[in-house]
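Researcher: Sequence recovery benchmark, item below. Answer with residues only.
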């Protein structure tokens, strides 16, 4: 039941790949990595969470959104509005009671989707993301005038404008916010751990992954009642 399977999904702008875990019936989770380099640093960790959920009978998918992962859309052509559209249409494609779990800026993707609930780890606004990207900003002589390079990621002015006003979902519905104890911002619960997204290299925290998987399991169970 925990075996990883490769799959694809179609959205109105094309097709993308995704990983599947767990059963093909019952509630399902869409997992969202953060944007840019933080995705590489946290992918192994998020996969560990999804494998743990699968052991307990919760299915999940980890999709590439346009301009992320192995997407056919290059980063310079990525738009947050397209990523949100692809996410929303993936929810419709799955046609199951669907929950989102996200890490950091991954919480910016699900704002328009019809979801049974949202679980966010250290949710980040687009403005916060841009502030961090500014620290790594470089001017590339080869980049077109309408593009800027951030730590090897070439972003269009349109994408930067998308992010500037982007915030995680804060409307009605079931929403659970998780943060680390080192984060002073409000959360439903905080856990003691080091932020993997700050590491210089990709890493994992299997103990925290198990703790968070248990948190997600109990939360989904409460939502399903």
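Model:
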């Amino acid at each position: 039941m925990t075996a990883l399977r490769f799959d694809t999904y179609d959205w109105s702008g094309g097709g993308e790949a995704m990983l599947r875990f767990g059963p093909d019936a019952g509630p399902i989770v869409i997992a969202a990595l953060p944007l840019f380099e933080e995705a590489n640093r946290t992918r192994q960790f998020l996969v560990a969470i999804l494998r743990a959920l699968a052991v307990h009978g919760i299915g999940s998918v980890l999709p590439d959104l346009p301009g992320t992962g192995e997407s056919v859309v290059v980063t310079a052509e990525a738009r947050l509005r397209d990523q949100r559209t692809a996410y929303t249409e993936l929810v419709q494609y799955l046609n199951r009671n669907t929950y989102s779990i996200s890490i950091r800026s991954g919480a910016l993707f699900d704002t328009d989707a019809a979801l049974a609930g949202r679980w966010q780890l250290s949710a980040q606004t687009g403005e916060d993301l841009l502030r961090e990207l500014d620290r790594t900003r470089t001017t590339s002589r080869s980049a077109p005038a309408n593009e800027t390079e951030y730590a090897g990621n070439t972003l269009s002015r349109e994408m930067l404008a998308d992010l500037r006003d982007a915030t995680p979902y804060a409307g009605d519905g079931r929403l659970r916010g998780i943060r680390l104890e080192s984060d002073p911002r409000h959360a439903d619960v905080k856990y003691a751990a080091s932020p993997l997204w700050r590491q210089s290299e990709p890493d994992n925290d299997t103990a925290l992954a198990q703790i968070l998987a248990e948190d997600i399991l109990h939360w989904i169970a409460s939502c399903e009642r």
